[in-house]
Amino acid sequence: MSNSVEAGLVIGQNSYLQGVSGIDVLTVEEERDLAIRYSEQGDLDAARQLVLSNLRFVIHIARGYSGYGLPQADLIQEGNVGLMKAVKRFDPSMNVRLVSYAVHWIRAEIHEFILRNWRIVKVATTKAQRKLFFNLRSSKKRLGWFSHDEVNAVAKDLGVQAKDVLEMESRMSNYDASFDPVVIESEDGSAHSPAAYLADQSEHPAELHEQNDWASHNENRLYHALETLDERARDIVSRRWLAEKKTTLQELADQYQVSAERIRQLEKNAINKLKSCLAD
Questions:
Q1: Are 79 and 61 in contact (CB under 8 A)?
Q2: d(Cα 53, Cα 247) in Å, to the nearest integer?
Q3: Does the reported pTM lie above 0.90?
């Protein structure tokens, strides 16, 4: 990313933060009135005001996740999505401030974003793993690698098994290896980056498309040719050559009450007719 682009992002983020800080916080009465208007009348302007007045709280929560190495603007954006979901579900009759209710939704969206983007390979998929991911990071900052007793203590506190704690600790200690690291050239001028020698040997997309079209064309011609056969001949060819489990000559002979040699002759004649149709 160029310095000019980075500077532009910083300026844009600062402008956003300044703009949000200039929005007045709603009083309890104002918030309740807006929540009722949205809940009972579907007033979108009321919902917009509820969202805008609480954006500063999203920023405050998002800053608590700055240690994950993800852009602050992205964390804020995901938190805003959680805030909007909270506004949609907020019940003004609960007699609590919107921000108290919205904290769960804001954190949930930020957590999901972190889990999707912290590593190339997702580190947490189950409920227990998600719980461990966020709790272990804070614990490891204080304790480093866990001892046996610390592993058991964490497992007991979080209601998971000790092996789950050890597995998540191992996952979090790994790092993403770049497929295309800094290229180091040898004395003969050859590059050691995988991208330099792991070329894609498959066909060009245009060639693959042409092959698929041609295969589809031939399949259609074959089925049209089959329609020129009588019902018995078509059945023999289909079951002898097109079915996944091929039928024997004797099985067809028993069904049609003729000899296996007669079935072979009918099959040969049908195939010759198909060849003739396909050659036209």
A1: yes
A2: 74
A3: no
